Fold:
Amino acid sequence: MEPREAMENDKTGEIAQAQFRKVMGSFPTGITVITAESRGEIRGMTANAFMSGSLHPPLCIVSVAKRARMHVHLVEAGHFGVSILGQGQEHHSAHFSGRPVAGFTPAFMRLGQTPVLRDASATIAADTVARHDCGDHSIFVGHVVHLQAHGRVPLVVHDGRYASLKYLQEAPPEPVADFW
Structure:
């Protein structure tokens, strides 16, 4: 299979940001909204740099640009929420990525002390236990203190576009193997 377009280093040997974004966008991922309450206000941002970190203790990880307005709120709050968006919630993704949707007002609920989106596919509340420098981003490690799954099909992004999920097999029988 021939590559659609060659992605090479520029003349200085550096990877061009546009090329990096293009290649990284080839990896399909779910979309989340990261939330925190700081300065008496609930703040949120769309993010797909989210992953599980550890099963024992239960940890999750988000990566946030240092220049993002959300960064300071995550530092100040000391805890954060993760709302995993479901299909049909593209307006949430757009709204929290800085493109407000006319007439849309997000509905929040609390998991413990942490605000999360009310109708998300799944929600997590985590206490920040570490923050690590990662170039122009910070990696926030959260100890999961509350979580809920609502069974909605997740919203996926691939190559800069929203996509849907098609299951290729039936759900595995319980229990799932304990190697994760």
In short: The CA atoms of residues 41 and 169 lie 43 Å apart. The mean pLDDT is 88. The longest strand covers residues 122-134. The two ends are 33 Å apart (CA to CA).
